[in-house]
Amino acid sequence: METVRIALPRRRRRSLHLGLAVVTLTLGLIALFVLPGAYAHSTSSGRTATAVLAGIWLPTAFYVVNRASGTTTLTPEGLRLRTAVSRRLIPWHTVTRIEAERRTGRGGVRWYVARAHLVRGRPVVLPGALAEGRQDEAFRASLEALDRYWERTRPPAEGVLTSPADPRSA
């Protein structure tokens, strides 16, 4: 079987990085020019406000970089998940289901992610499989590739076998 790589399209990654750059620039300008003037004549320092800005920026930056750089590679061994900070292999025999999940954010913004449900543990969101709508062609192609690969590599369904001499079979 060929190896299939699922990642955000280049344009989408670029727009995420551009958004992060705009947020970084805006918060940096506020911290440099607005906060010192606002706290110049008060007894409290601008350190608290700067810490709040940094507390907003750091998780946002981490989330965007992690989302934009994440990929899922389909191999005969399993799903190879790669993000900016982690690497993980999920063997195919541990995957019970693959689904597209709709998520809703503040203001009613909706997006879709692909998730793999595992035999043990909670579902894992697959990096690189993200769309603003279910009709996104790249996202649909990713889901189809996931389904095809999983169907080919999953083990056959196991039934409970009983013998005629077994008292439970009566």
Beta-strand content estimate: 25-35%
The main sheet comes to: 4 strands, antiparallel
Order of SSEs, N→C? EHHEEEEEEH
Rounded to the nearest angstrom, the radius of gyration is 23 Å
Q: Percent of residues in helical segments? A: 40-55%
Shape: elongated
* Alpha-carbon distance between the two ends: 44 Å
- What's the β-strand tally? 7
Low-confidence stretches: 159-170
Average of per-residue pLDDT values = 79
Structural class: alpha+beta
Q: Biggest sheet, strands in spatial order? A: 1-2-3-4
Tell me the number of helical segments per DSSP (H or I, 4 or more residues long): 3
Structure in words:
By secondary structure, the chain is an alpha+beta fold. It is built from three helices and seven strands, in the order βααββββββα. The protein has helices spanning 10-38, 47-69, 137-153; strands at residues 4-7, 71-74, 78-82, 87-91, 95-104, 110-118, 124-131. The chain has a four-stranded antiparallel beta sheet with strand order 1-2-3-4, with helices on one face. It has a three-stranded antiparallel beta sheet with strand order 5-6-7, with helices on both faces. The longest helix is centred in the first third of the chain and has 29 residues, at 10-38. The protein is elongated and about 75 Å long. The two termini are 44 Å apart. Residues 159-170 have low confidence and may be disordered.
